[in-house]
């Protein structure tokens, strides 16, 4: 695998931003790891960070490079700050950045596939929300979306305020009532997708039973199941921590509908 630290300018955000990118490299003599790579453009996983982290965190806390090498999978890890992958009410347009500009730029910089069935998204906590939003709102772009311990009921975060201040929440989303039924409400997005005749992504969701977001995950799981969407749900003992996410990202890669 090749690992690149990429700094570039975003026209959408109006500032310089960063992403880390892993690109497959076929190897036979590398000690301890054998890499795979397609002869064409690579299948790609967009891997999203949580609220208190940045684009470096997956490389620092997990062995994602080693895990992805087995599958010949490119991994794009962008920095989005504390944005919740959202076009903020008062602030930058991070949803537009991550759903439109980022994939186009990443493909212009690196040999990444633009085929829907070769593009996937996953993330943890805030990034789990972002991944599900990308899957549900842009099913034309992503064949699968996975949430690890996701903050999936953001309307309730306004009431709970367990991860951010009320002022920060209001700058991003407005109020919880404004979220309900909007393009930022995963429950509403799932309902819209269930009524759509277009493509539907495969969905994966997991959460530790001791996680403070467990109740949010149960509500989302039950809602998605009631709509008949293709959801794989897993839970086991675990909290909101990297030992759990390192274990589950390996499971996500195993689950992805990659052409093998």
Automatic annotation (TrEMBL):
Any coiled-coil regions, as ranges: none
One Pfam assignment: Esterase
UniProt xrefs under InterPro entries: AB_hydrolase_fold, Esterase-like, Mycobacterial_A85_antigen
UniProt protein name: Esterase
């Amino acid at each position: 695998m090749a690992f690149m630290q990429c700094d570039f300018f975003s026209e959408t955000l109006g500032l310089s931003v960063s992403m880390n990118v892993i690109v497959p490299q076929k190897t036979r003599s590398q000690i301890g790891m054998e890499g795979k790579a397609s002869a064409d453009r690579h299948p790609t996983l967009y891997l999203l960070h949580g609220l208190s982290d940045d684009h470096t965190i997956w490389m620092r806390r997990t062995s994602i490079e080693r895990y992805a090498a087995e599958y010949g999978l490119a991994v794009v890890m962008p920095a989005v700050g504390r944005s919740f992958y959202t076009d903020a009410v008062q602030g930058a347009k991070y949803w537009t950045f991550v759903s439109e500009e980022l994939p186009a730029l990443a493909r212009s910089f690196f040999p990444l596939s633009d085929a829907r069935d070769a593009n996937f998204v996953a993330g943890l906590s805030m990034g789990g929300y972002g991944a599900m939003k990308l899957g549900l709102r842009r099913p034309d772009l992503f064949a699968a979306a996975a949430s690890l311990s996701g903050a999936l009921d953001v309307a309730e975060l306004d009431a709970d305020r367990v991860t951010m201040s009320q002022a920060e929440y209001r700058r991003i989303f407005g109020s919880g009532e404004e979220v309900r039924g909007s393009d930022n409400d995963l429950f509403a997005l799932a309902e819209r997708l269930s009524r759509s005749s277009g493509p539907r992504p495969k969905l994966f969701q997991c959460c530790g039973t001791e996680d403070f977001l467990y109740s949010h995950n149960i509500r989302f799981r039950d809602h998605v199941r009631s709509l008949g969407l293709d959801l794989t749900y897993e839970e086991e003992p675990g909290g909101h921590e990297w030992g759990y996410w390192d274990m589950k990202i390996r499971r996500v890669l195993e689950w992805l509908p990659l052409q093998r």
